[in-house]
């Protein structure tokens, strides 16, 4: 198990304080800085490793940044603390985005990011909770994170603490039946402490979601399953932050975050082939410039 | 050690009764114990648990993938979930959840395969849980526990609560006699010596332990001294007991109410087959090689050659090859 980077964690804590005190434009500016730094880490990791899922990493980066920098009640120095908020990245192939985010909060040293997918690295292509602090459950096969999040939300309630549970799913992943089993449970159990966030970038590995096995009307479907549905621009930091507010109906909250796969780099954005393509040297240089 | 002739006339029991009683007893003093099921309150004998702890029984309905995922989440939140569902659906339908969410994630979930083996007799192969050993043995980090009677079922639950770790326990429905009337306790990763013997060894799991003891009595009448090992744990595997059986006795017969592709017999073979030449004794593996035809559990045990006489005959055959 990797261990916390104490000074990075302290920096993150003071940044959080500033963020929560500041006004909306200050928050947006700070969160954007943090997200772009995460994207640069991701780019570095993927071009160094020669593999990874850059498109989905970039679409989910802003969501992860808002959650970790402004929402989650977690302690990088005590990642399994009783009563913490639980975060589950169900789209486990976007591990690089999660690792970068966790390192920037001090869950472990950012130096570790350079080992991404190297032999014996803790940072596997898909996250492993046994080795990486801040990872709650091992994902990779799709349709696994939401049931686990539902269980954590039920568990938090049974234990009588105020934990909230946030799970991020890819939109293509909503084709997995296990997610709909879990959504039924979430609303049946009235899990108002659960936020189900769908990274709606409208692309899956091979094609558009709507050209593969259409999800729309996703909002109506989630509402029909009993969730309180919020639709936001998944790259608007303040809108995302508002969407993470507690349930107003006593039902679990679904956030459809409309995103752009590959967000932040012009030639990667919204292109299906960039699901797991690796940028060349020249492309990496250009991408760094665009993200700076 | 048990005396077999008395065993054959002994009353038989459904292990689910002991399972439920023990779970309730432990839940009274340990509020972290919860039960999770898939519309299987009745078939898992959880009615009394639900009555006493209504909030701590989570029935997710007929949704096994979600059931195991939810249980991993409950464990993640610090609870000790006992997942109670018919073995075939628990292990087959949610195998990937058991792999990724429980074994690989090391979430301390106790998976209770109710009515395993061919307990559902005439309901057929869809309802038989005979692949569980093969499937689950392939998962590192998951204990596989096979109690042979009600008292051992209780002991298995006590062990799981005292030291929670990812675990699969078979909870039998087909009635079996008590085979551990003196001391039902057992240790992680160890077989229990159910009967000492020096000529050959029978290694049996679950239902087959009673059959193995009867077989040993039958062999004794022929002057053959049979050691009987109760394979309470399939994972971790008791390699030392298997190795000792191969070195100290002249043949090994394994018996399991499971498919032989990757179960107890296959596990024993993988140890014995890699021993030095002198220790590589003749081995007979009894179990299923096909989907079961229509028949009651008892009928099917006979059909697949899993009754006491079949074990005894396999032992005689293996010894004659010496």
UniProtKB/TrEMBL annotation, chain A:
<dbReference type="InterPro" id="IPR029061">
    <property type="entry name" value="THDP-binding"/>
</dbReference>
<dbReference type="GO" id="GO:0000287">
    <property type="term" value="F:magnesium ion binding"/>
</dbReference>
<dbReference type="Pfam" id="PF00456">
    <property type="entry name" value="Transketolase_N"/>
</dbReference>
<dbReference type="InterPro" id="IPR005474">
    <property type="entry name" value="Transketolase_N"/>
</dbReference>
<protein>
    <submittedName>
        <fullName>Transketolase</fullName>
    </submittedName>
</protein>
<feature type="domain" description="Transketolase N-terminal">
    <location>
        <begin position="35"/>
        <end position="275"/>
    </location>
</feature>
<keyword id="KW-0786">Thiamine pyrophosphate</keyword>
<comment type="similarity">
    <text>Belongs to the transketolase family.</text>
</comment>
From TrEMBL, chain B:
<dbReference type="InterPro" id="IPR051157">
    <property type="entry name" value="PDH/Transketolase"/>
</dbReference>
<dbReference type="InterPro" id="IPR009014">
    <property type="entry name" value="Transketo_C/PFOR_II"/>
</dbReference>
<comment type="similarity">
    <text>Belongs to the transketolase family.</text>
</comment>
<dbReference type="InterPro" id="IPR005475">
    <property type="entry name" value="Transketolase-like_Pyr-bd"/>
</dbReference>
<dbReference type="GO" id="GO:0000287">
    <property type="term" value="F:magnesium ion binding"/>
</dbReference>
<dbReference type="InterPro" id="IPR033248">
    <property type="entry name" value="Transketolase_C"/>
</dbReference>
<keyword id="KW-0786">Thiamine pyrophosphate</keyword>
<dbReference type="Pfam" id="PF02780">
    <property type="entry name" value="Transketolase_C"/>
</dbReference>
<feature type="domain" description="Transketolase-like pyrimidine-binding">
    <location>
        <begin position="13"/>
        <end position="178"/>
    </location>
</feature>
<dbReference type="Pfam" id="PF02779">
    <property type="entry name" value="Transket_pyr"/>
</dbReference>
<protein>
    <submittedName>
        <fullName>Transketolase family protein</fullName>
    </submittedName>
</protein>
<dbReference type="InterPro" id="IPR029061">
    <property type="entry name" value="THDP-binding"/>
</dbReference>
């Amino acid at each position: 198990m990797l261990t916390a980077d104490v000074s990075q964690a302290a920096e993150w804590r003071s940044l959080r304080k500033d963020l929560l005190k500041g006004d909306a434009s200050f928050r947006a500016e700070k969160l954007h800085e943090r997200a772009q730094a995460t994207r640069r880490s991701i780019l570095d990791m993927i071009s160094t490793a020669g593999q990874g899922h850059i498109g989905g990493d970039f679409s989910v980066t802003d969501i992860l940044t808002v959650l970790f920098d402004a929402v989650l009640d977690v302690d990088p120095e005590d990642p399994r603390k009783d009563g913490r908020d639980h975060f589950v990245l169900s789209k486990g192939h976007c591990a690089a985005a999660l690792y970068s985010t966790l390192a920037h909060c001090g869950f472990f040293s950012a130096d570790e990011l350079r080992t991404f997918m190297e032999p014996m690295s803790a940072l596997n292509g898909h996250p492993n909770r046994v080795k990486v602090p801040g990872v709650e459950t091992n994902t990779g096969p799709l349709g696994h994170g939401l049931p686990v999040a539902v269980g954590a939300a039920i568990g938090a309630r049974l234990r009588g603490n105020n934990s909230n549970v946030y799970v991020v799913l890819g939109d293509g992943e909503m084709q997995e039946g296990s997610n709909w089993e879990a959504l039924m449970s979430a609303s049946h159990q009235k899990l108002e402490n659960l936020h189900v966030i769908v990274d709606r970038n409208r692309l899956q590995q091979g094609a558009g979601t709507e050209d593969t096995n259409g999800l729309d009307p996703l909002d109506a479907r989630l509402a029909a399953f009993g969730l309180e549905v919020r639709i936001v621009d998944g790259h608007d930091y303040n809108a995302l932050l508002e969407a993470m507010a507690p349930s107003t109906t006593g039902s679990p909250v679904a956030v459809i975050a409309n995103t752009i796969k590959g967000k932040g780099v012009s030639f990667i954005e919204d292109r299906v082939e960039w699901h797991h393509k690796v940028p060349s040297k020249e492309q990496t240089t250009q991408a760094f410039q665009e993200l700076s | 050690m048990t005396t077999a002739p008395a065993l054959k006339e002994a009353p038989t029991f459904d292990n689910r009764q002991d399972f439920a009683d023990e779970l309730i007893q432990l839940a009274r003093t340990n509020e972290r114990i919860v039960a999770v099921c898939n519309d299987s309150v009745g078939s898992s004998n959880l009615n009394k648990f639900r009555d006493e702890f209504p909030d701590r029984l989570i029935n997710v309905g007929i949704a096994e993938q979600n059931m195991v995922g939810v249980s991993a989440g409950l464990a993640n939140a610090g609870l000790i979930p006992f997942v109670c569902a018919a073995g075939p659906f628990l292990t087959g339908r949610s195998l990937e959840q058991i792999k990724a969410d429980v074994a690989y994630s090391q979430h301390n979930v106790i998976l209770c395969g109710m009515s395993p083996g061919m307990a559902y007799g005439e309901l057929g192969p869809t309802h038989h849980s005979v692949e569980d050993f093969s499937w689950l043995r392939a998962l590192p980090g998951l204990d596989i526990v096979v109690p042979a009677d009600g008292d051992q079922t209780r002991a298995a639950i006590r062990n799981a609560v005292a030291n929670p770790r990812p675990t699969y326990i078979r909870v039998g429905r087909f009635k079996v006699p008590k085979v551990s009337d003196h001391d039902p306790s057992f240790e992680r990763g160890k077989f229990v010596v159910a009967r000492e013997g020096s000529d050959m060894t029978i290694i049996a799991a679950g239902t087959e332990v009673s059959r193995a003891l009867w077989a040993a009595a039958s062999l004794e009448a022929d002057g053959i001294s049979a050691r009987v090992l109760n394979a309470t744990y399939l994972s971790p595997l008791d390699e030392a007991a298997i190795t000792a059986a191969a070195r100290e006795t002249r043949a090994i017969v394994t018996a399991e109410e499971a498919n032989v592709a990757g179960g107890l017999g296959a596990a024993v073979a993988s140890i014995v087959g890699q021993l030095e030449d002198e220790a590589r004794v003749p081995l007979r593996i009894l179990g299923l090689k096909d989907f079961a035809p229509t028949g009651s559990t008892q009928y099917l045990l006979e059909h697949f050659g899993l009754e006491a006489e079949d074990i005894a005959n396999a032992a005689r055959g293996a010894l004659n090859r010496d």
